[in-house]
Design brief:
Blueprint lengths: L1 H19 L22 E9 L14 E5 L2 E3 L4 E4 L4 E9 L8 H14 L7 E8 L2 E6 L3 H4 L2 H5 L9 H14 L5 E9 L10 H11 L2 E6 L8 H13 L2 E4 L4 H14 L1 E6 L7 E8 L6 E4 L2 E3 L2
Length: 305
Amino acid sequence: MRWLILLLLFGMSICARNRAFGRSNGDGSDGRAKATYHSTASEVRVAFFATDSHDRPVEGIEKGDFAVVDNEIVIREFRSFTRSASIKLDVIVLFDSSESVLPQFKQEMADVRLLISQWPWSAEDNVSVLSFSGTEARPVCAGDCRTSLTADRIASTPAGGSTPLFDALDTATGLLTRRGQPDVWPVIVLFSDGDDTISVSSYHEALAKVLASGAQVYAVDLGDPRQPTIGTNTLQKIADDSGGRFVRLRDGAARIFEDVIEDLHSARIVTYALPESSSDFHSIRILPTHNLNLQFRCRRGYYRR
């Protein structure tokens, strides 16, 4: 009995040692362990635009020309620094089809089609179009809008009714976030007068979703520039806080196209390690280190995931 107990204990120790080193006897393997290592890395990615004192794009920006201030922590060490030309795009064109913009609806649709048809797309870019009116945002085309956005599809878009602007932004940013990838730059081109009459989401909730998605918003104001409204201020605020631009429909499709494309060609993408902070929201500023005439435009901040 004593020898039997000793043999059992010896066998158990051998099995335990094999399990500890990842071995499996009797499976035909050579006994070497196959280990898988898992790690997590938190990284911040910021798209920004550099201009001179006359708001003209500046070429030749290097890593040492700027510093990122993240929650008052100065960041000078960057993991990567690239031009936007090497980044794939995920673009959502979001256009208002509610009652308040019906007088400008035809011009709005013409500008949307022109913007998409003349954009210098790459083969891997993704573009979707959503309209919003009544109580929701609706897809007009998804992913393949470069070729599938036809006059018939636009003509069949429901028009009139209330304006769910903030809910539409919620829908658009949700789509961008769900299909977001590290090497893809999310962009929203928003055509609206900035007024909201029915959304469940508030302005602050919609803005938080925009910042969380990392998308730049290019806001095209459909309102009358001779009669500025709260909606105009709303569009300007969303564009500025996201690092995008604010333009007016009356400036014409050429100006809209020029401003957006200029940004796409001149933008830089910088990444760095997430700094330690107890705050969920991180504010961002980019400051020049040498040439004080340099000006930088980027999103106001981001939410830590």
